[in-house]
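@channel sequence for tomorrow's demo:
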Amino acid sequence: MGEIGAAKRQVRGRVRDARRAVSAEARRRLGDALARVLEEHVPAGSHVAAYLPMPEEPDVRPFLAHHLARGGEVAMPRVAETAEPQLEWVDWTLEAPTRRHPVLPLDEPEGPGREIEWLLDQGPLLMLLPALAVDTRGHRLGQGGGYYDRLFARLDAAGRLPGVVAWAVVGPGEVLEPGTFPVEDHDLQVEAVVTPEGLRRLSSER
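structure tokens (generated this afternoon):
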């Protein structure tokens, strides 16, 4: 592991330790606060791609339940069984079954999987991205698998990024100053960051 990788790993470790210290009740309250923020900013009936949170990740499911109830559509990612690791997308409802990934510590939706391009063909897409931290220029620090970095690089190469609105979802204290963690050329930038305190648009700060 190089110097940049080691620096990222150090920041990831600090954020994960802080997240593990949050009680289940506090995490529930944070999820409810996230739902209120997102309901204010996400149009009813819109198409949203989100994620099934790992135990310590900000929980977007309270918002997604409300979004479905008001006519929205939701897609969830799953690691595709392909030679090159990439994400595919599954339509999701509250009753949708899930399965545990055989290696990674996450649950995945069951059902027919589609590539992200199929979602974009249906119209504008809001993507709520899991993240460990985001800096105020919009650089996202993920878990380290690189799935979203590769996804957005592919969309950029195909000219499909204009159809995507990308917001990262983080917890309190996880919006950091530039330079707090190193940024590489392949690291994606988001347009806004969502926390339980509100939505912060970052495009003017890049």
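heads up for whoever presents: The helical segments are 3-20, 24-41, 61-69, 116-121, 147-157.
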